[in-house]
Amino acid sequence: MTPVRVACCQVRLTVGDVDGNTGRVRRAVEAAAEAGARIVVVPELANSGYVFTDAAEARSLAEPVDGSTVTGWVELARRLGVVIVGGFCELDPDGILRNSAVVVDDGGVRALYRKAHLWDREKLVFVPGDAAPPVVDTRYGRIAVMICYDLEFAEWIRLPALGGAQLLCAPVNWPWASRPEGERPSEVVRVQAAAATNRMFVAVADRTGAERGVDWVGGTVIADPDGWPIGGLALGREMTVVADLDLEAALDKRISDHNDVHADRRPELYAPVHATKEIHD
Amino acid sequence: MTPVRVACCQVRLTVGDVDGNTGRVRRAVEAAAEAGARIVVVPELANSGYVFTDAAEARSLAEPVDGSTVTGWVELARRLGVVIVGGFCELDPDGILRNSAVVVDDGGVRALYRKAHLWDREKLVFVPGDAAPPVVDTRYGRIAVMICYDLEFAEWIRLPALGGAQLLCAPVNWPWASRPEGERPSEVVRVQAAAATNRMFVAVADRTGAERGVDWVGGTVIADPDGWPIGGLALGREMTVVADLDLEAALDKRISDHNDVHADRRPELYAPVHATKEIHD
């Protein structure tokens, strides 16, 4: 199987500057395609920016899935022959604000996902989605999508992994947090663990560009099924991380003569998780 | 709350040398207690060693939970005023071989756990347990226990975490595997992620001492609720990792004004994990 080149574009975004943001995203995707990328991941809320003053400001920046941002990505995907996975501030058909992401290719919008686990003040702005992360067959492999804080929930990652995803793409906006000297960002560590425990590639596109006192990890990363970051770590700069991935490798979950990370699960024993949760609620 | 000193003893073990192994474990626990540790974790299969030729050899080394190894740990716990968490090769009351671990303190054997996810050739030797990791109230805090490969299953870690465990103790024998230059052992990365996504301390005692061609990571580690390794990384040597833990910190699952790593779970959406698994079986 020929490896597929995957690019994660760590783009500088500015809250409220939809034209500027979508322009920078477009140029990053064009440059990635020019460099041979066939799957391109761009950040969460890549049209609107992140640090809204309030829900009204988010609403003023939100677009339907057939609005100019996603329509622009579909045109770009067709023109460049790439798959694009990106996040955008969505006004859904019921007029509800969603933190959403799409998978688009020359077939148009292949999947629309709405973030199910909302971070901090997002809870004051967005309504979380209730649908599992989609798994989409593309010409380059089976791609799943989720957004940022969703990645912290291993149960959520299991769904597309068990659904056969070879590559999980995650648009994120990881707010900056201090870490001990010499340590990698904790978000990256968790992505490594998610990749390894599912033997699945995970490609994350973070952002840069401080907004209203919030700065970002800038932790764009591509992890392989062993959990190792490949293609380098971005760590803060506006840049694109690129790696050539043998996505077939993610179909093989064996890790020893007698072990398979998925077949070794014992889901009949995990059900008490839910019972325990109910007791604690 | 006064911090409690936790020690994880990375002991050299030799398959078949029960007296030598239990003696080295005893001396390591005594030294840890002397240095002020109140909770001491020792490796998996700390009586028997690991690389059995076959099930018959394991059977010849196995002991009931009231055998000399665990009885010795209870005596040690009483004499030193410590909690000991350690793994041993168990012959259960039905004559079945188990890869087990106990939590012992001055009250005796407080919990007996049988490894539920078996690694590689363990499947030819042991029968896996079916019971969730126990959570034990000790005078120093709520302690849970699981063993080695169990740690790779985030669903399994959720059970004691949701059950209120402040400190998950894990006896392990991590077989050595190559890793890219400059990378931390992948097992340690996954422990960091488990700690952070549950805001729980995790204390792992690995081993040293090559056996029949198998060497070990020697990755003994204590991770805090942010997922950072504290007290250093052992990385191969026979040594003890020590850290003073404020176990109260593990009771607070909040990570922002609006987020709590457990309350933010959406278990009603995770059930398809099990359905998906059944389809794939």
UniProtKB/TrEMBL annotation, chains A, B:
Keywords: Hydrolase. Transmembrane segments: none annotated. PROSITE patterns: CN_HYDROLASE (PS50263). InterPro entries: Aliph_Amidase/BUP (IPR050345), C-N_Hydrolase (IPR003010), C-N_Hydrolase_sf (IPR036526). Residues 4-247 form the CN hydrolase domain. It comes from the Bacteria. This is CN hydrolase domain-containing protein. GO terms for molecular function: N-carbamoylputrescine amidase activity. One of its GO terms (biological process) is putrescine biosynthetic process from arginine.
